[in-house]
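May I ask you to comment on the folded chain given beneath this request?
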Amino acid sequence: MTAPARAGVVYFVDASFFIFRAYYSMPPDMADADGNPTHALYGFARFMSDLLETVRPERIGVAFDTSLRNETSFRNRIYPAYKANRESPPPDLVRQFGLCREFCRHLGLAEFAHLEYEADDIIGTLAARARAAGLANVLITRDKDLSQLVRDGDVFWDYTANARYHYHDIGPRFGVRPERIADFLALTGDAVDNIPGVPGIGKKTACELFNVFESLDELYAGLDRVAGLKLRGAAGVAARLAAHRDTAYLARRLTGICCDIPLQAAVDDLKPRAPDRASLESFFDAQGFGRLLRMQAERIAAAQAAA
């Protein structure tokens, strides 16, 4: 039996991950009457419907990346090569991103995107507002970057693996405490996002450094201590850190999630509205979807009406 979500919790969905996952895992022959692919939309719609039926959240926000390569992100102004290693997304995927946002609106969910900021920044800002209101956050994603937002009482939920990580689980899972994730990535770099790091500083060394130092600032303030640490090649590590200080601080501006972006949304805006059944039916008809999603939508609407 499905139990209602615990009061005082806000769920945040990192939509892009689940859309990409559906795009590359669902059969690509699904299409609407005009022949437009719909497999990513269908997979995302199934995921969201299953989530809503399982959790029945009192508050939920769904965050999207408007530019799939993020050329419009403020991070590209800081570092033009940011994510430049990624190929442009196929046009049919871009189209389905827009339909996924539309589906959320039909379901009565608060969905967000921003030309200048990424989904991580949207979630970070809304999570900070929720925390200030005394609410706990559940981050539904597999992106390690978002683990930097976890604080006591929050949960990082890797939905696809059905694994939940609380604040004290993040260190054993990712190597350092949540507050140090952005600093950790500033040293190691992030090849996925084309973010440079300090050459020769790998994950093991970065973990050892941040077991001693609280932050990147504290590390550089105490750089003279590094050579004396019980660390393999400590003198060389200290020299590399000194030589690449500017690179580390550049990377830190890229790896940190913004938690104060200009977003017109209050915590109460995250309360789901009753789904618009007529618009959902029209939407499903246009996409050529069958009974399964329609039946789930009916159950979600009934549960929302009874809440």
Observations:
- The first strand starts at residue 9 and ends at 14.
- Strands lie at 9-14, 60-63, 110-112, 136-140, 155-158, 163-166.
- Residues 39-55 form the longest helix (17 residues).
